[in-house]
Amino acid sequence: MEKHIAATAAHAGEAAAACGAGMLRAVLAERGEATIIVATGASQFDMLATLTAEPGISWHHVTVFHLDEYVGMPITHPASFRRYLWERFHSRLPLPVKAFHYINGEVDPAAECARLGALIVAHPVDIAFIGIGENGHIAFNDPPADFETEEPYLVVTLDDACRRQQFGEGWFPGLEAVPERAISMSVRQVLRSASIVCTVPDERKAKAVRDALEGPVTPEAPASILQTHADVRLFLDSQSASLLAAAPGHS
Fold first, then answer.
1. Which of 25, 32, 200, 224 lies at a 20 to 30 A Cα distance from 231?
2. Residues 132-164, buried b or exposed e (16+ Cβ, 10 A)?
3. Into how many domains does the chain fold?
4. Three-state DSSP class for 63?
5. Is there a domain that residue 247 lies in?
6. Which structural domain range is residue 71 located in?
7. Is 125 inside a domain boundary?
8. What mean pLDDT, rounded, does the chain reach?
9. Looking at the domain assignment, is residue 245 inside a domain?
10. Got the DSSP string for 179-192?
């Protein structure tokens, strides 16, 4: 795992986007097309803003998937991840992408998992832009995460810590309004990505970062599974890195 620690969240997001953009250009130059995964949430604001402005990317040759969506969530809702990605990523690109496979939370969840699973199996992922939740989740795979299922997408029940995070970030008017279920990309599907660019700023993520990097690989700390992947680039700020045993340096 390649670790980069920046002074601020903005610098971490900018560095992650620059790294990912360079990797994406290389894939496009080699193969003429690419498939990526993009994440959502407050932790991705700076990364996505920078990524959409990166020059020299042939977006019309890029296929895009994303990680999760709430079951029953209309795209008009402020917390919809489809809406988030349209407003903060898709609509800001200088060229239309080849395809953007949104997760539709308003249809039968099992059928939507099957539909998306068939699509992503046909599009091996080159780069996954992801984050880590306060409870250590990747996508919406809360602890104890399912490390075994080979299904690309699954329906999950969100734990209290995850739902509190969504409320705390201001996406919902009250905790009771946060949905209890979501469609999520599975842990194994995330790990199938050739490269992973993981952006995790903020002090509230410090424990999850420490557990992911320095603890055992366990479903109780879902992001710890990233230790097993061959190519992970982790971008932290000084606050999210504050509990790491090694004295944080900046890169």
1. 32
2. bbbbbbbbbbbbebbbeeeebbbebebbeebbe
3. 1
4. strand
5. no
6. 2-41+53-192+215-230
7. yes
8. 95
9. no
10. -SEEEEE-HHHHHT
pTM here is 0.94
The terminus-to-terminus CA distance of the chain in angstroms comes to 14
Q: Residue ranges of the alpha helices (H) in the chain?
A: 9-31, 45-53, 81-88, 109-121, 160-168, 187-191, 206-214
Contacts of 111 (CB under 8 A, 6+ apart): none
Helix (H, G, I), strand (E, B) or coil at 219: coil
Nearest C-alpha neighbor of 13 from the set 37, 38, 49, 39: 49
Whether the per-residue pLDDT at 179 is higher than 90: the answer is no
Pairing relationship of beta strands 34-38 and 2-6 according to DSSP bridges: unpaired
Evaluate if residue 247 carries a pLDDT over 60.
Answer: no
Mean pLDDT of 63-72: 96
Six token digits for residue 41: 């949430």
* Percent with pLDDT over 90 in the chain: 88
Tokens (6 digits) for 59: 């977006």
Among candidates 74, 73, 89, 3, which has minimal Cα distance to 40? 89
CB neighbours of 206 closer than 8 A, spacing ≥ 6?
239, 240, 241, 242, 243
- Convert the pLDDT of each residue in 122-150 to its tens digit: 999 999 999 999 999 999 999 999 999 99
**Which CATH number belongs to the domain containing residue 176 in this structure?**
3.40.50.1360
Q: Is residue 197 part of a domain?
A: no
What burial letters (b/e) apply to 97-127, b meaning 16+ CB within 10 Å?
bbebbbbbbeeebeebbebbbeebeebebbb
Q: Which of 58-62, 106-110, 211-215, 244-248 has the lowest mean pLDDT?
A: 244-248
